[in-house]
Amino acid sequence: MTSRQFVKERKFDIGLSGFTYTDDRAKVIQFSEPYDNSESLCQGFLVRSDNTFTSLDDFNNATVTVQNGSVQQQYTEQQLHGANVRFVTALEDGALELKVGKTDSCRGKCKSGEGFLANNPELKLSDTLFAVSDAIGTMVIMPLGEPELLEAVNTSIIAVKDLWFIYTMVK
Predict the structure, then answer these.
(1) So what's the pLDDT on residue 171?
(2) Which residues are within 8 A (CB) of 47 and not within 5 positions of it... i.e. 6 or more apart?
(3) CATH number for the segment(s) 43-125
(4) Domain 3-38+136-170 is of which CATH architecture?
(5) H-type helices in 54-146, by residue range?
(6) Exposure pattern of 126-149 as b/e (b: 16+ CB <10 Å)?
(7) Cα–Cα dist 111/139, whole Å
(8) Rounded Cα–Cα distance for residues 148 and 156 (Å)
(9) What are the C-alpha distances in Å from 113 to residues 119, 125, 152?
(10) Pairing of β 29-31 and β 15-20
């Protein structure tokens, strides 16, 4: 079960793990204001260090691992028509498949992929990126029909963003 499903079924009050908005998701969960826009702008690939892919066309006939139900799955389906797609439940599983040679690449947000590089020198982020159709950003998710919770989360996000803005201006 994914974090979105846990939130939808009210097993969790909120989900805070780089969630991005889609119309389909908004039918079953509600989204906060964005708290970070940097991750949604860079949608790339983890590949092995010796990988030479230089364009999306190079992924034709390659095996691409992607998290099932993710925005990255949507980009993969829209832009990699010739790839062999393998689905995993978590980015970590895709990175492991990449390390052991079960896949040629693992789809993810660039920022998420960077976390794997420090402990996995045999991997790198590909220079090839998806053309992104939205720059909405990452958001907190919560069950539908919780206006007080949504207001509290949005108030907190705005306060932190305001403090960050003041900090960066003073710095």
Answers:
(1) 53
(2) 53, 98, 104, 105, 106, 123, 124, 125, 126
(3) 3.40.190.10
(4) 3-Layer(aba) Sandwich (3.40)
(5) 71-79, 91-99, 110-117
(6) bebebeeeeeebbbbbbbeebeeb
(7) 15
(8) 12
(9) 11, 7, 31
(10) unpaired
Q: Could you give the angle at the alpha carbon of 19 between the alpha carbons of 154 and 12, nearest 5°?
A: 75
Question: Mean pLDDT by 10-residue block, N- to C-terminus, for the chain (171 residues)?
Answer: 87 88 90 80 88 92 90 86 93 92 90 82 89 75 97 94 68 53
* Amino acid identity, position 132: V
The closest of 80, 102, 106, 105 to 92, measured between CA atoms, is 106
CA 51 – CA 106 distance, rounded (Å)? 12
What is the Cα–Cα distance from 23 to 10, expressed in whole angstroms? 20
Using an 8 Å Cβ cutoff, are 141 and 15 in contact? yes
